[in-house]
Amino acid sequence: MPTLQSSEAVVLKTIDYSDTSLIVRLFTEQFGKVxxxxxxxxxxxxxxxxxxxxxxxxxxxxxxKDERDIQTLTKFEFVTRYSRLSSDLAKSAAAMVTIEMLDRxxxxxxxxxxxxxLVTATLRHLNLSEEDVSVMLHFYQLQLSRQxxxxxxxxxCMNCGRPLSEAALDLTxxxxxxxxxxxxxxxxxxxxxxxxxxxxxxxxxARLGTVHPPDQAKKxxxxxxxxxxxxxxxxxxxxxxxxxWQQVQAE
Length: 251
Ligand SMILES: [Zn+2]
Description:
With about 250 residues, this protein is of the alpha+beta class.
């Protein structure tokens, strides 16, 4: 017997299926990543299919059966409308990176309510605030690594324990080390970049507007966070959204 489940959810990916239906991958707050079919959604007038697109934050109801991979969506509605994301290229590119990174980092039916709150808070913040979009994205990436259980040590060298002021990524362990320990380490972070990273590590999302790193530090930390996530999460490389985000940044 199917059971009716309900949860808040973020749309990760949507694929057209037949003339009338959609296959939708969701990150639900209650049940983790779940794939559903929205039968007839492409024709429905009551519930426009445009709602079922990333990165929308919805309430969903679906019929769940253990023995099947794709569950049946029965009802959906907005929880939050991100009305400003679609009209701002940098914001929508950053939102897509947020979603694609999440999709690649999590597994089916593995609920993670704190990660759900992080993602929805990041999207809400991207939508509403006028703050630096890259700072928001860096904050999210750092917090994502923390929620997935492999946050970098930002304050002391993993090898010798000295306070970090200038650092390098050690590519055998995927950890930050001081430059005395890793003089030839990949991706060197000068003191301003380490300062910025440390600020990101201790600040609350509501206070991100107070962080104003120099452009160079932002660039270096962006590169570091990507390399760091690639190292620790299988399948994080070659993200289309990241290529798009980098193009938007370069313009
Ligand atoms: Zn060291």
